[in-house]
Amino acid sequence: MHPLHPFKYCPKCGSKYFEEHNFKSKKCLDCDFVYYFNSSASTAAFITDVSGRLLVARRAKEPAKGTFDLPGGFVDMYETVEEAMIREVKEETGMTLSGFKYLFSLPNIYEYSGFEVHTVDMFFTVQVEQSGKDLHPADDVSELLFLEKEKINPADFGLASIRKAIEIWLK
């Protein structure tokens, strides 16, 4: 199914003649508007403490409720990826990050309210001094814990891109 299948009407003029143009766009046959379906930007953080343990978050909401995740989330409009990384980690953990480094990115499909959101997830790394005492799970996180690297199982992570990133990070 075309990723824009749920969109039935042209967002510019409201025409019902809004049809598949190519694999990533739809075109209005009345006003010639072409809408491209591009990936949404998202961030995730590999946060380690001074002992090398990884901070993992347990998801409080669907998708993948109850599974492990990395702190992070969607980049808002008018926000840089770096600003989003800082904001999302603060919202989910109470931590204020600084000095993080970009690692890599992975494409993903994130199901939200029955709709597939195509994302490009950007992964960062940072080492922190704290190791749990000042952490406060919030937003869409029910629990935060530091895990030793050898106790991390990628299968415990519910989102495909996060699971793949964990596999890459563990190598």
Question: Characteristics of this structure?
Answer:
171 residues, mainly beta, four-stranded mixed sheet, three-stranded antiparallel sheet
The percentage of residues in β strands lies in: 35-45%
- SS summary, helix count: 2
What Rg is obtained from the alpha carbons, in whole angstroms? 19 Å
> What global shape is seen?
elongated
Q: Compute the number of strand runs.
A: 10
Order of helices and strands: EEEEEEEHEEEH
Question: Segments where pLDDT lies below 50 for 5+ residues?
Answer: none
Mean pLDDT: 93
- Give me the side-by-side strand order of the main sheet: 7-4-9-8
Q: Mind summarizing the main beta sheet?
A: 4 strands, mixed
Fraction in helix: 10-25%
Content-based structural category: mainly beta
Distance between the termini: 35 Å
Question: In terms of topology, how is this protein built?
Answer:
Layout: E1 18-22, E2 25-28, E3 34-36, E4 40-48, E5 54-59, E6 68-69, E7 72-74, H1 81-93, E8 101-112, E9 115-127, E10 141-147, H2 160-170
Parallel strand pairs: 4-9
Antiparallel strand pairs: 1-2, 2-3, 4-7, 5-6, 5-10, 8-9
Summarize this, please?
The protein is mostly beta strands.
Question: Can you put this structure into words, describing what you see?
Answer:
The protein is mostly beta strands and 171 residues long. 14% of the residues lie in helices and 37% in strands. It contains two helices and ten strands, in the order βββββββαβββα. The strands form three sheets. A four-stranded mixed beta sheet has the order 7-4-9-8, sandwiched between helices. A three-stranded antiparallel beta sheet has the order 1-2-3, with no helix packed on it. It has a three-stranded antiparallel beta sheet with strand order 6-5-10, with no helix packed on it. A hairpin with a 5-residue loop joins strand 2 (25-28) and strand 3 (34-36). The longest helix has 13 residues, at 81-93.
